[in-house]
Amino acid sequence: MKLNSRYNFKEKELGKDFAKEKLADFKKLIDASTSFIAMSMPGVGASYFLKYLACQEFTFFIHIDLYSLPSLTLHEFYKLFLTELGGKTAGKSDEDLFLESKEKLLELSQKNNKIVVIFSRFDQLGKEFDANFLSNLQSLTTINPGKIVLIFTSIKPLSELSPDAVTGGNLTFYSKYLYFKPYSAEDLKKLLKIDPEPTQASLKLDELIKLSGGHYQLLKILLNSQKEQFILDQFVKLQMKGLIDYLDYQQKKQVQKLALGKRVEDIDDYLLGVGMIKDNKLFTPLLADYIKANLNIKLPPKEAKLFRLLRNNMGKIVGKEEIFNALWPNGEGSDWALDALIYRLRKHPFIQNQGYIIESHKKIGYTLIQS
Which of 59, 47, 68, 7 is nearest to 180 (CA)? Predict the structure, then answer.
């Protein structure tokens, strides 16, 4: 039976062919009355899909977006929950808010075949999690067994976010995951139609989509970038840093190996699941570029000394005589030796990945700049 959607999000315009496999995976668990956590990379765009899901008509959806919380507290969460269920929140304690929410949910479950509550960006509240809070949410599914399904989103297992809270009965309930992989090229194009982004990039859209690896936030950054080398864009760097920083030690090591062109056996299930790694490659070459640029790659002693001298005089001409005195104080240096050293320094991965440029000033010296 089709129901009229409660929501009129712009994602409703994405059409019936949007993210068909993802929708089928979600619907399968919903039909089985299985609550679960949709797990994805940061910024991949899962929240767009969840709004699209909430607009579907095969069941009754309640969409709770934690992004709209004025502050990340349990009290504000309980208020938002009851508000979305049509209740009034003024002057009520957390317990009162939750009990009234349960009553509202029971009423809805008696009028509808199934209720699906979506908690979008749920992991943002991770610092507030405790065993009682998670148990309260779990208890919602027992109000009318088989008729209430909860969907949470997170960028990592809740047991890692808050191990003390995910124990006992909570451990089993909050250990059911559905991996949310990056979007297909066609799905990204559909998202851009409802969420247009003026492009300043020199590459064509199809090339940018391929470079994004299906990551929607990264695609939007690339569309706005004016850099010829995207890895030098500060927002691209921040996105790549965000993708690396939330991984654990072993996951970082595997990603680093792949970035350096090494093969990895027994790839971490999470990295495969969220699509960060596919076919033994990182989902975007920009991640490999970022990792290589930020590795502690040591310059050889002579090159390091020259680099420090040039960097200490960033944007200024450093005369050849000053360089000779610093690098060859005993007078054994030569123009040939300096030319060879400059060549090696220019070709070093650290210099190239950091966007450093060494400008020559004929017979005078050299200047270090950064693009």
Answer: 47
